[in-house]
Amino acid sequence: MPEQNNRYGRLASQVYHLDKPIGHSFGDVEFYLERLQHCPGPILEPAAGNGRILIPLLQAGLDVHGFDASAEMLALCQSECALRGLAAPVSCQTFEHFHYEQSFAAIVIPAGSFQLITDYDAASAVLTRCFQHLQTRGRLILDLDPAHAIQAGGHSLRAWQPAPRQQLTLTCDRLSTDHINQVSVDLLRYEAWDDGVLQATELESFSLRWWGVREMLAALRAAGFSDITVSGGYAHGRWPTDADAIITFEAIKR
Asked: Given phi > 0 = left and psi -120 to 50 = alpha, else beta, which region is 33?
């Protein structure tokens, strides 16, 4: 297994940016814009990546800050902000150690990024860190991919064409599924091709932890949150069903 886990290196970041460009929505961009439209203070997006959601929030006039552990992803975010004449209030930090002197009116973790934290105790500590960085009556909003979506492993091959005669490919194979600790591990092989000749290869392991709905409710309450709303499929307030591709939790710091 490669040493880098959930690394998002150079080729991985290029593929992510091609596959999920700025503003590309799974329903989440519109959902977060609606939920945050009256937010009274600054917003933090951990794992902001290339700015797919952060930039539309900035364009809507919201005061948004972000961080990511991948310098390559942050460079894409900063470049896209510069193209739009936006300040890029982003920094290189991790879930486990992020720190700000200011507090936030909202912290948002879209698209299942929270599930990149695969250790239960570490994830619980991150929820506490989020609680500590929120203002009184501040909100944490986070998305989870449902368990069945993560448990389903297998083989896949995808390709993108960034320029004529150039191709980026991603091969994904399941390495392991730990049903006790609720963690899946995939091996990702990124390859860059030019006119049919292989130019570069990157290997990364990609790990995700799945959560039960009531398990996450208990973890949020243990971190100090209350007034928790659970929503399925970006329909705010509708309890999720097995058919939903995403589950969202919105929790308040009293």
From this structure: alpha
Q: How much is the pLDDT for 3? A: 46
Q: CA neighbours within 13 Å on the CB side: how many for 136?
A: 1
Domain with CATH 2.20.25 in the chain: 149-208
Fold of 149-208: N-terminal domain of TfIIb (2.20.25)
pLDDT value for 4 = 59
What does the pLDDT read at residue 5?
77
Distance CA 100, CA 44 (A): 10
Dmax over Cα atoms in the chain, in whole Å? 58
* Closest residue by Cα to residue 213 from 173, 234, 180, 240: 240
Residue ranges in the chain modelled with pLDDT below 70: 1-4
- CATH superfamily name and code, 10-146+210-253: Vaccinia Virus protein VP39 (3.40.50.150)
CATH 3.40.50.150-classified regions of the chain: 10-146+210-253
**pLDDT tens digits, 133-190:** 999 999 999 999 999 999 998 899 999 999 999 999 999 999 999 999 999 999 999 9
Coil, strand, or helix at residue 99? coil
The DSSP letter of residue 169 is E
Tokens linked to 75? 């460079």
Q: What residue type is assigned to position 176 of the chain? A: S
State the SS3 of 192-245. Answer: EEECCEEEEEEEEEEEEECCCHHHHHHHHHHCCCEEEEEEECCECCCCCCCCCC
Report DSSP letters for 117-149, one per residue: ---HHHHHHHHHHHHHTEEEEEEEEEEE--HHH
